[in-house]
Amino acid sequence: MKYISTRGNYEQASAAEAISLGMVPGGGLFVPKDIPNLDKQEIYKMKDLSYGEIAYKVLKEFLTDYSSEELEEIILATYNAEGFSHKDIAPVVKLEDGLYILELWHGPTAAFKDMALQLMPHLLVKAVEKSQVDKEILILVATSGDTGKAALEGFKDIDGVKIIVFYPNDGVSKVQEAQMLTTDGDNTFVVGVDGNFDDCQSGVKEIFGDDDFNALIEESGYQFSSANSINWGRLVPQIVYYFATYAYLLRDGEIKEGEKINISVPTGNFGNILAAYYAREMGLPINKFICASNDNKVLTDFLESGEYSTNREFKKTISPSMDILISSNLERFLFEMTGHNSQKINGWYGDLKENGAFKVDEETKEKIKGLFVGEWANEKETKETIREVYQRYDYLLDTHTAVGVKAYQDYLEGSSDNTPMVVDSTANPYKFSKSVLEALEKVEEDNEFRILERLSELSGLRVHRGLKGLEDKDIKHNRSILASQIREGIKDILEI
Question: 2, 130, 140, 268: which could form a disulfide with 16 (CB 3.0–4.6 Å)?
């Protein structure tokens, strides 16, 4: 399996090279040259396998320069009872006939990012060995809340690696911020940025493409890599849980072999829903993808009109992990939709850089609309959905999953499609306890940790282990910079 650049500006690379580099030097993202196809009977037989066994069958198709022994060892070290609190790792919960919730938050930090970021450090360490990199790996992460803690937790205390996480000040929940700022590990650094997530993400991506700054970093004994979903090593483990979902539905008698499912994904950076698309291309029976957005509905508008425009107001919402206007993984998706046409990708992303917008051709637009539907929910609708689902099913949604459920409801109302629907639950509701509690009752308290306790009293749901006692932990990080100072912040941390 070889990997190529979405912008046609880099030679073919192995999986290990793509993972160790993180992003294509000079711009662009690595994608598999060819998407492997799994035999349908092999997919159906997954109903008798554990999550780890399913992971092996999927990952070995993409990571062909990793030996079977290496993959088995990595998977065994990741998807176990120590790392994940549920035996299914990513359990599927039935709300009613035809509606299921895929819980992706049973890992150590209570967010779906754990599904990949508990595995990725093992992949990266092996990738560095295989690529014979003689420098220390410097991982840069831009986060809208969940990726930061999951990456810090995955990479802390790993030899030969330093990790710097940039997050928007006042752009994440207090629980998310506390999770990051209390992270220990001598190789971890957390930096608040006066700006929004797009400022953090754009700053990091610009650094990856800055030849002069990369040269300075290399002279200082480091090589950049990424733990964001721009790194293929972050994205490929996410493909696994869609196969596991189908396997669990078969195992539990909810669907029949070959029966198609729909997927609704609360979407920010487009990585989670892109992983579902790759699963479909590998042979998983998926009918439609519901791309669910909050008030920052740049993707909803794009899927309807074919025009992607960031020339709009950026809104801070109660679903902050989706407060994104530049969805990085859309580039990979468009590359696939155009049959790997790097010329079109370069043109569109040149327009995005110059004008803040681009418009795809009619053929590409119609091809996308055949598979993807864009829906969105405002904050009032999100809270109403949390309350309705709790009252009807005694099930608690977080503010992101609620957007996914509302998108499903709107899609169902506007179509006659009764295909079984799986909604990705991307975070434990306690990560956004204040907004969730406000959906259920009047909130007088302002302290998020007291609110968390009240939510537990009300719902009876056990507080996630990764969130217990956060307010009592020592703050280990206190750096804050302007969005224009990311390079200076890195140099200060590395003392260069």
Answer: 130
pLDDT in tens, 209-229: 899 999 999 999 999 998 888
- Give the tens place of pLDDT for each residue, 407-431: 999 999 999 899 999 999 999 999 9
Q: Which of 86, 90, 94, 92 is nearest to 393 (CA)?
A: 94
The token pair at 168 is 């928007």
Task: Give the active site residue among 33, 40, 47, 113.
Answer: 113
Domains and CATH numbers, the chain: 92-111+233-448 (3.40.50.1100)
Active site residue 113: yes
Crossing angle for the helix pair 197-208 and 211-219, to the nearest 10 degrees: 70
Distance (Å, whole) CA 246 – CA 243: 5
| DSSP class of 430 | G
Q: Which helix (H) or strand (E) holds 423?
A: strand 421-425
Asked whether 203 and 186 are in contact (CB, 8 A), the reply is no
Measured CA to CA, the distance from residue 149 to residue 160 in angstroms comes to 19
Alpha helices in 317-378 (DSSP H): 330-337, 342-355, 362-369
Q: Which single residue is written with the structure tokens 């969940």?
A: 146
Q: How many C-beta neighbours within 10 Å does residue 194 have? A: 15
Q: Which helix (H) or strand (E) holds 1?
A: none
